[in-house]
Amino acid sequence: MTYIAAIDAGASEVKACLFDTDGNEITTASRACPSDSPAAGWAQCSAEVLTQWPLEILKEAIDSSGVAVGEVKAIAVTGSRATVVPFGADGQAVGPVIFWYDRRATDAAEQIKEEIGQDDFFNLTGVALDPTPSITKIMWWRDNHPDIFAAASVYALPQTALAHALTGEGWYCDDSNGSYLGFMGLHSRSWEEALLKVAGVTADKLPRLVPPGTVAGPLSAAAATFTGLAADTPVVMSGSDNACFKLGAGVEGRGVVCIYIGTAAAVGVISEKPIVDRRLNCCPAALPDLWDVDALLLTAGAAYRWLRDLLNGAGQGEELSFKTMDEMAARIPPGSEGVVVVPHFAGAGSPLWDPDACGQIIGLRLSHGAAHLARAALEGVVFAQRHALDALIEHVPDINRLQLTGGGASDLWSQILADATGLPVSIPRSQQSTCLGAALMAGVAAGIYSDHADAISSTTMTERHIEPDTSKKAVYDAAYKLYLNTLEQDRG
Questions:
Q1: To 5 degrees, how large is the angle CA 137–CA 140–CA 145?
Q2: Domains, the chain, with CATH or none
Q3: Disulfide: which of 86, 125, 360, 408 matches 152 by Cβ 3.0-4.6 Å?
Q4: Is the pTM of this model over 0.85?
């Protein structure tokens, strides 16, 4: 038998999965990422999450699988974009991991705006200028921790750190990750001198850019001994998490929007050409000669979790689970009887790109309770996705289906998404779509599949299909209009 391992270093957890060549999940091991917030808007953790954990979690997955180690033919690495950690010349981290959603670098974003220009930055990189791209975090170190800035030999993304931990050599970043470092030209696929200059960084402090699907090297002898895998197992730069999850969900062409709901959310398509629209982000796709056009929502599952924690903090009897909250929400009619939740609790991503935006709850009356808030939170995330989807549809008008994956693909949330958008929703068999997408990229690189189309068709399938309830569309249209009006009043 032949198997492929995949490691995904996200902002909420580090995960290792093992798949067979049909895309069946054999085993998964994961650990939740700690997040330290020394000041408002900060989010960081110890570098061991990206240096030690990947090997330990991979070993846990392999040990629990019962698979003969010689049957694992490739290891895929992926991870969140824009999260960054500095490493010294000795390969040891010299600072903490700063997560992509950290908001501390507003001054750096303002400096780039003044020296480069907000529109020029977007046109050059394909991504919006706010504190998200890694360049702003690197500039924050420069201005606030010159000791870290001076000691840094390379600034690594999660994928970069994973590959180095596995191979013991080289620092790589694939093109689909490069845009969110904030230094890569969307069209040139190289580090741009103007951006290096504004940050005070030389190109040798950044990873080497390679196409997605590049073999970074074989598993090192030390990593092979620790995990029990063969020392010649190729380690593949599979693409960013955002690029990989579309492939793992079975998306490979036009007409289908892939939606991911996790801590944050993404709404995106694979395009045959780059689409330049400041409301959206455009990055090279994992598939050759294609582009990912995406809307990024900063808080999705995080908003639902915030509400759960808030309600649990009230100390009202037994603590609520997400399943219980879904059951509560299902008892409330569409539109939440006038309650609207705007889920921008960490600022607004697409299509607004407003770091100062705040979460809002409006329409509350004495007749409303926790169940209304639960449903309104689910609907609020869907309305934020519909807001982003509206911008996508202007460029890709022939969208006919939504492919939903991630932890938010619950029965209720899926149905709300279908009803509120009027589009059918498909749920793929594997909810480990990011790891599966990374694995199929590694499978192509290792010669397990003949090409990407073969890999996608061999490993992905739809588990269930949800049709929209057209009788609810008018109610949701009215609620969505109220949502947009709330945004407009807040920004006015």
A1: 120
A2: 3-239 (3.30.420.40), 250-428+461-492 (3.30.420.40)
A3: 86
A4: yes
